[in-house]
Amino acid sequence: VDLYLWRKEKLHHQGMADRDIRKDETVKTWEKLANFFTPLTKYYISETCNSLAFDALQIHGGSGYTEEYDVARIYRDARITNIYEGTTQLQVVAAIGGIVSGMSANGHLRAFIDQEMAKFSATQELMDVKQGFEEIVSLYKEVKGDIRDELAFEVVQSAARFFLGLLMERANGRIKSDVKDHRIAMTRALNLDSLAILQANLVRMRNAENPVQAAAV
Fold first, then answer.
1. What are the counts of helices (DSSP H) followed by strands (DSSP E) for the chain?
2. pLDDT for 153-205, tens place per residue?
3. Beta-carbon neighbour count of residue 110 at 10 Å?
4. Which residues contact 62 (CB under 8 A, 6 or more apart)?
5. Over the stretch 61-94, which tens digit does the pLDDT of each residue have?
6. Are the C-beta atoms of residues 153 and 82 closer than 8 Å to each other?
7. Cα Rg of the chain (Å, integer)
8. Which of 57, 183, 33, 198 is closest to 116 using CA atoms?
9. pTM for this prediction
10. Residue 129, phi then psi, degrees to nearest 5
11. pLDDT at 57 over 80
12. What pLDDT, in 10s, does the model give residues 87-133?
């Protein structure tokens, strides 16, 4: 956000007209990326904090449900996070357009990915996640009708998992301490988990024209 907001301010103080500022390539690129990464981050962090709070509550056993432990407050706060930050469904709606347009041949998101991945040597696991993400986006573009809205979540989730792996692998290259091996192992585990998630999402995408209804219990 800062990369385009402060540039807009700087150009404004230099006397540039608002119309010309909006045409500035740096402003346009980072504004598009911010408009995508903001809802993506809100969705993933909100859902993750709910999962963490859920596990934390179980660690305390039955006592976790009492007000004697901070985890009770954490659980309530986590549950409300993806409401006052905007529901997950709203964040998906806000993010999906940036993926579809951004992953085109000359899209801003694809260019950003290429730029970031040139900064480190990606593992095969991350490359496999990237390939799965690109296939999911490609399949989603072919989906028609109401099912398109239903499958938007799978696309956004796949994007989140890919960027998690990208950021962790990029960060691993900067670690010099004795925890580097542990971080690398954590990153590999995350990428393998992402591959499983993306495989499930690919199955849904490939069967978009013939969705399977949930069986009655």
1. 9, 0
2. 999 999 999 999 999 999 998 888 889 999 999 999 999 999 999 999 999 99
3. 15
4. none
5. 776 566 777 888 888 889 888 888 789 999 999 9
6. no
7. 20
8. 33
9. 0.85
10. -65, -45
11. yes
12. 999 999 999 999 999 999 999 999 999 999 999 999 999 999 999 99
For residue 40, with 0-12 CB atoms within 10 Å meaning exposed, 13-18 middle and 19 or more buried, which class applies? Answer: buried
- The Cα 109–Cα 113 span in angstroms is 6
d(CA 158, CA 134): 9
Tell which residue, 52, 130, 18, 36, has the closest CA to residue 91: 36
Task: Please list, in sequence order, all residues whose beta carbon lies within 8 angstroms of the beta carbon of residue 202, skipping any fewer than 6 positions away.
Answer: 132, 135, 136, 139
Give CA–CA dist 131/202, Å, rounded: 11
**What is the Cα–Cα distance from 150 to 202, expressed in whole angstroms?**
14
Burial bucket for residue 199 (CB in 10 Å: 0-12, 13-18, 19+): exposed
**Tokens describing residue 129:** 């996640």
DSSP secondary structure, 32-61, as one string: HHHHHHHHHHHHHHHHHHHHHHHHHHHHTG
In 3D space, the residue among 160, 162, 183, 185 whose CA is nearest the CA of residue 172 turns out to be: 183
Query: What length does the chain have?
Result: 217
Confidence label for 23 from pLDDT (cuts 50, 70 and 90) = low
CA pair distance 203, 198, nearest whole angstrom: 9
